[in-house]
Amino acid sequence: MASPFLHRAALRHPSPARQPPPRPQPPQQPPQPRRFGAATFALLAVFAASGAGALWVYPRLVKPQEQPAQPEKAEIVFEKTRKRPASKEEGRDLVSSQHLQVKNSWEHPGVYAWGSNTGRVAAPGSSETVIKTPRRIPYFDGQILRDVKLDREFGAAVTEDGDLVQWGAAFSKDSVAPAVTLKGKDIAKIEVSRDRIIALSSNGSVYSIPVAKADQASGLKETSKSWIPFWSETAALSYRSLKPENLGWGERVVDVRSGLEHCLLLTSKGRVFSAAASSEEFPSRGQLGIPGLTWQTRPAGPYDQPHEVPGLRGLTAKSVAAGDFHSVVLDSQGRVFSFGDNSTGQLGVQTDLGVAVDTPALVPINQLYSGTNLQPRVTSIAAGGLNTFFTVDAITTKSQTPGEVGRIVADTWACGEGIHGNLGTGKWTHVSAAPTKIRALSGLYEYDEAAGRVVPIRLARLAVGSTHACAILDNFTHLSASSKTAASDTNFGADVLWWGGNECYQLGTGKRNNANTPVHIGPLDGGLADAAHGRTGETLRLQITPRTTVQLGEDGKGRTASVEQRVECGRHVTAVYSGA
Ligand SMILES: *[C@@H]1O[C@H](CO)[C@@H](O)[C@H](O)[C@H]1NC(C)=O
Ligand SMILES: *[C@@H]1O[C@H](CO)[C@@H](O)[C@H](O)[C@H]1NC(C)=O
Ligand SMILES: *[C@@H]1O[C@H](CO)[C@@H](O)[C@H](O)[C@H]1NC(C)=O
């Protein structure tokens, strides 16, 4: 019998009684079901009623019979002797870590990075080999960026004006510091392969730019397998153009995704093209989705000319995703197709087509819900490394309980490698034969005050790196605390959880052990601002500020911009940046 609240329930409760501090869970244990009953609602009502009288106290929402396995962490209660807040804003800083984090994201836009630093990517100015907790890259201070992509050996970013910035050892051993390379192309977004940057400009042009500064200057990449035929561009900086043939009237490329050796191009008409994206290896694991296409059999013309994926002709693709050696496509009917490398089960398809599948295969999503009263529809896909993820809205089709029909369960599924914990399912399995549900990111609900009902919590975004990943929850957020609202009205952003490989400290936990279930990490400044306001300890957790238009800078005295915090999980490196 399905309960109206599946695994956990999160409640949006009236201020100031919001945000229960996270309860630390022993590692390797699946998240405990948490249900709030009528008692909790009553409790909430008490807090709501007590209003300003309950100032600066964090309530703890724990059902009495649900005893935590570990001793409770000490509550954060402010010392009686604390000076009284002089202003509303000061009071909010005193009461809320989340409020401070939102404020910091607006006052100090820029990039925080952590993880591997062997390629001088997380901290270009430091010779440390790992950066254990978030650290700012000073070059980007005050900047908001269109995109950031990180490899262990190089970093690439797009400025607010659409110029490309590059740094790290694979860019230039002699000058690892960030520098503008390609200018004036109005780049909207970038992806990175093993050794190239695939850039999509606002008007739909796609450029393939060598990572190495030396290759940009010479136009030739010297490798033992120097098989690059020719360069089609003559420019100060050598790059290639990826132009799909036969685009229709008004049709243009609207998205690009890249694996280590291949990339996918999505057009405004929902067509999918694939192309070689590396100068080192031609894709050979079926990830292009072009049966029979190899380096030897390729047609005349540039080696990296885009080809339309024949197995996807006739359907309307909505989004594309690429792992290291595989491809995933979501169409307008909510169907998911995958092709390429299946060595760790990342295709999510259980028929034996071999480890390299060069024809799109349909992922049998309905099978995952067979025997239930739920009808699934895939809402988003993501891929990275040897993993694929997708989110599903599963709609209740029949039920004895009135009001149950039409209720939506939002689930998150994972396939592929799990050895680093990268499935997020609580297991360390090497290979997943079929998609597995990430329980910690499935069946979540919160109470929608405005609508007066319980609503599912979906994911706002999934960022997938080579062995680690991060999910930003689409919970309620609040960004409108102002001089006109009550002193108890504090801002808060979106919850964000991390899991997977942590060999280079890329999860940001400050420790090195991998996590096979999603975990919280601390605030980006390491809790310094909180400590200044008397808050310390593990109850502090990072939240991400969603998009809003604000005045940036100290005390909101800078320029007005639309900005959101975004997460980039790369190859053993992670960043949180202010996104344009
Ligand atoms: C968001 O939802 C999660 C999962 O239920 C919950 O733990 C968290 O407290 C919620 N965050 C806020 C700000 O309500
Ligand atoms: C985009 O603009 C550039 C010039 O800035 C031009 O060379 C290119 O052909 C345009 N691309 C498309 C697809 O219109
Ligand atoms: C992909 O790999 C998994 C796990 O080895 C296997 O069960 C499945 O049948 C494979 N799928 C295809 C299409 O070969």
Describe this structure in words.
The chain has 580 residues and is mainly beta. It has one domain (89-579): Regulator of chromosome condensation 1/beta-lactamase-inhibitor protein II (Methylamine Dehydrogenase, Chain H, 7 Propeller), CATH 2.130.10.30. The chain is 8% helix and 32% strand. It has a five-stranded antiparallel sheet, with helices on one face. Strands 26, 27, 28, 29 and 30 form a five-stranded antiparallel sheet that branches. Strand 16 and strand 17 (326-331) form a beta hairpin. The longest helix has 13 residues, at 38-50. It is globular, with a radius of gyration of 24 Å. The two termini are 46 Å apart. 48% of the residues are buried. Residues 1-83 and 221-234 have low confidence and may be disordered. The structure holds 2-acetamido-2-deoxy-beta-D-glucopyranose (3 copies). InterPro entries: MitoProcess-Associated, RCC1/BLIP-II, Reg_chr_condens. Residues 17-33 have a biased composition (Pro residues). This is RCC1/BLIP-II. RCC repeats lie at residues 270-333, 334-394, 410-475. One of its GO terms (cellular component) is mitochondrial inner membrane.
Distinctive features:
mainly beta, Methylamine Dehydrogenase, Chain H, five-stranded antiparallel β-sheet, 6 helices, binds 2-acetamido-2-deoxy-beta-D-glucopyranose, RCC1/BLIP-II
